[in-house]
Sequence to fold (535 residues):
Amino acid sequence: MPEAKAAPHLLILAEPLLREGLVRLLEREHRISTEPAGSVGAVQLVVWSCGGDLPLASLQHELQQLKERWQPAPVLLLLPGQTPYPSEALLRLSTEGLLQQAEPSEIPAAVATLLNGGRVVELRPLAASTPEAEPVGFGQWLLRSGLLQIQAEQRRCERWLEQCGGGLSRLLLQGRLRELAAARRLLLWLWGPVSMAFPEPVAPRASHPAPPQSLAITVRQRTAEGVWQAIQQRITAAISAELSNRSGQLLALDGLTEEHRRDLLLALISQLDLLITRLRHEQLRGEELEKRWLQQQPELRRLSLRAMAGDYVQLPQQGGLLPVAESLSSASQLDGLDPDLPLALPMLAALVQAQPLLVDGRLLAPDEPQALLHLELLISNWLIRTAELISAEILSCCSTWPELRRYLLRPELLATRNLERLRNQLNSQQRWDNLFERPVQLYESRRLLFGMQEGAITPLLLTEPRDGELRQLSWSQQLITLSLEARDALAPQLQSFVRRVGDLLVVVLTQVIGRAIGLVGRGILQGMGRSVGRS
Fold:
């Protein structure tokens, strides 16, 4: 008979009460040691329960000491729910496993994942640590006050939008939200810089994606396949829930019914899975990998459109039945390129070849939590922008096929006027973005990405060099960048001029006009006193 496989050897470091609970929880399937000096044999996993009262630097130092002492055994760090550490700092810790406020049933599953070469991160903070408020000037106070008023009005309109059924009230509220978003952008452009605006859900401004308060990441294998499977599961779960639009922009994707919107996104993620698998087998690298990716985009969009429409669905048109998938596929122009999509090579190299990814100035392995969240953001952005391109073509086809509207579009868009109004608004928004928004973002080295957080499509502005794209702008778009440069150059001189004019007015009002008024008043009082004395 074959020899029984030895149970994995675990080292548990915790306070006595927690240590006894962990031992009873894990002793059935593992060999347990509770003292480093008494550990016999090679330790395969270190479980450390930290009280959460250590300074962050000490916590990092202790983790490093454990990894060096028990290398190559992974470390599972257990933290309480209330800690002074922010989520960004916890994601930077050099540990393979991190459970915050873990349930007893989650610990054995996390141990099994780590022993199989995976990675587990669970964040459930009870109270988020708030940084100390920095002193702000009068100009910053005015800007933030205006942004707070706009944000409060946006939330009020969103609450009313959830309560109203439809019709004219819904259209008015949606228009009001677009007006508030435009007012916010104008306020930031006039009274910038953008760094003075605090991040908020409607249009956050950050240099990297901030992790949510509650986070769950499980990577079964620390390979390219394992990373992609973890990201695919997270994005599929986000798509399966109802996604609301909090991007601050009008999206063609909102014109589809909830069911077809979900089917389109799921079809895109499924086709992306097949494409990544194919690229992994072809073993392409560098420019050849990105070229192959771009070549496959039109076919990927076409297959996703057919999967969303249904291969066997037929609708009447001009007295006959036409297959919806075939008709949409032949009538749609799906070979366009979105200039706002970032370069796909870093994302593909991480998902296909497990190459490191540059995130916030640090070169990280793809299975690191921050790198995985960044990859998820890039894939979500590609997913939403590709779905937006397909949805715009669907709206165009629906304008000439009334029966198709009942099948694919929301009930509000059955009327020809409402559908054409939506298409005109989308075209106007696209022209405005191409003429003004994109040159400003290129000049400020920013890129707008769309992510999926807390059941909503949310925007995020990443800061990255875009000098090559800036040089490719047309002359009309370059005028916008020149106006921004002129504004930056003239602003200090204008401020100095206004300050000097203000000082001059103060001198004139106090030293000249004030003294003259004082002399006149004194003369009147003296004259009144003399007249009273004579009487």
